[in-house]
Amino acid sequence: MATADRVLVVGGGPAGLEAARGIADLGTPVLLVEAKDALGGTPWESYATLTPHLAPTRELMAEVKGAVEGHPLIDVRTTTRVVASEGVAGNFQVTLEHDGTRVVEAAGAVVVATGFQHFDPGRETQMYGYYEYDDVITLVDAERMMQAGQFVRPSNGAPPRSVAFIQCVGSRDRRIGNQYCSKVCCGIASKQSIEVKHLVPDAKVFIFYIDMRMYGFWEDQLYWKAQEEHKVNYIRGIVTEVIKKGDQLLIKGEDTTMGRPVEVLMDLVVLSVGMEPSAGTLEMARIFQIPREPHGFLATVGEPLDTVSTPVPGVFVAGAAAGPKDLEDTVSMGGAAAMRAVSLLRRLVAQSA
Amino acid sequence: MATADRVLVVGGGPAGLEAARGIADLGTPVLLVEAKDALGGTPWESYATLTPHLAPTRELMAEVKGAVEGHPLIDVRTTTRVVASEGVAGNFQVTLEHDGTRVVEAAGAVVVATGFQHFDPGRETQMYGYYEYDDVITLVDAERMMQAGQFVRPSNGAPPRSVAFIQCVGSRDRRIGNQYCSKVCCGIASKQSIEVKHLVPDAKVFIFYIDMRMYGFWEDQLYWKAQEEHKVNYIRGIVTEVIKKGDQLLIKGEDTTMGRPVEVLMDLVVLSVGMEPSAGTLEMARIFQIPREPHGFLATVGEPLDTVSTPVPGVFVAGAAAGPKDLEDTVSMGGAAAMRAVSLLRRLVAQSA
Q1: What residue in B sits closest to A18 (Cα-Cα)?
Q2: ipTM of the predicted structure?
Q3: Of the residues A226, A271, B56, B220, which has the maximum number of CB atoms within 10 A of its CB?
Q4: Within an 8 Å CB–CB cutoff, is residue B272 touching chain A?
Q5: CATH number of this structure's domain A7-115+278-352, picked from the four choices 3.20.20.30, 3.40.50.150, 2.60.40.10, 3.50.50.60
Q6: Measured in whole angstroms, how far is the alpha carbon of residue B137 from the centre of its chain?
Q7: CATH top class, domain B119-274
Q8: pLDDT tens digits, residue range B53-73?
Q9: What's the predicted TM-score (pTM) here?
Q10: CA B279 to each of CA A146, B33, B220, B274: distance values in angstroms, whole numbers, following the listed order
């Protein structure tokens, strides 16, 4: 059977957008499938600004989103799901569903860019009270408030006088089954702490952390910037409990630098929730029979020298579907997956000629 | 002037190899220039094994190295340097020097993959005694010993009974001008600590760190594996001094978890030296007029949504020439740069048609 000269990209977030644009810019047609009704993925939907420069997400992403939406070689299908796949590299027959109608489309290669979902802190509700107390929120809730240009206590709509970020919620935690570090939460919390100070200059802001994983340039772009320019306080410690006290939240735990218990009252608590494979990622694992690595994300082969090839020939992965990734990882993988997918189609065509 | 249908890749390490193979697999000819007499870069030359799976470097890199060396579209020039460049995107005229002879070659786009060099601990010699004491070595010296299948004290050739890794040597240090974190040293030290225990099972191994930046899957692949399976001890602290005492080394500093001074005798000290731009990277910045970002590495534009485009049209960067990168970053960037370079040539050809 002839090689289908088209690549299916599943997922329209930063990884899928970059992969789709890259493939199309290389001259190969793309079928881009997104389950939601708009492209952009989690950042477009929920993040006010992006690390490391705190630039507005929608301004920054508009270029790639527009390039994809306007590209003559990219067929964008929103509110569409991949529900089945048959065939092999060079000729996958993929069933798509849109509005209850199913169609089968051919693709020579597939890039899975279905990303992650945030850890649901309900699974730790007894510790941190996310579903019990209005003023316990997640990083994502904070971004949504900041998208609207405000940062207030949900309980009363007033600016918080004190804010505590609790790191590693749903990460580095064997009890809940997520042993890995989610990589980006230290950077995002530090970014948000700066934004809190922009929006509520008088607020006291604390970040409770186990290790501060501000790798590379984040060291001074975010970590020292937060401390020196914005007077954010980093406290190395383990928070064991958040309980309601009056109209505030009492944080109990241990300051591991000082080696003593800590109890502080806060107006607002932000849980730095980690990454888990999204439902779409698990679904693509099943449909394309992609093995999952020990943490549950899509497996890749050839680590560390190949970040995008899955064990299934012709199926590539980009972004956080393969594990916790920052935006730089994600777009680099999108570009690398584009290169690999187009190269594969070239090779298959050459072999069959 | 017609677009030159060829990409110059400068540097034959993991980033340059991946970029070269990617470009050639997309059907575009590559001119790959490497200053040394063999491809493979720093890992091939000096690293016994690679993070995160401790696989032998040369086994792992043989595939991409062989693919590049045998590729009909890749013209490999070793012991060759780029010494000048004129022209613009689509038609760079690049002067190469080999054995004292200069030739001018045309390239439509350029990928700079000239990497990093390790921080020279001589710049901190008063603190850690690298040039004074035989048994103070760097991560690189350790890798070279491990390549030869051994791990001994240089002073007497005997296996060390105790080994201390000191993290952040030349990183996160304003005094020496390197404010950034070098990203990979926590992972490499943890990897090496496991290898020390393989080679010298009775050795006691300590890692003195400020923050342990074992992001993502390194958390359990390296950090917990070192502690639980190999009994490596992680001590959060600042080492202020290494001095000779008898035939051992006295490490003085502060254990910041316990909040008390620490003084321990060690047989061998490994300095976890960070990354700085290599001489070749600085040279390429000059020749191609690529601005340097505030830490001295090659600047990129469009962060975080583009990791490989420099401010100079037609000139891309991959790997640690753009800042501290792990191997995954590096190969993803290599693939992404391949995609961008070939896309650019396609666009230029289309525009001129």
Answers
A1: B305
A2: 0.97
A3: A271
A4: no
A5: 3.50.50.60
A6: 18
A7: alpha beta
A8: 999 999 999 999 999 999 999
A9: 0.98
A10: 43, 15, 35, 15
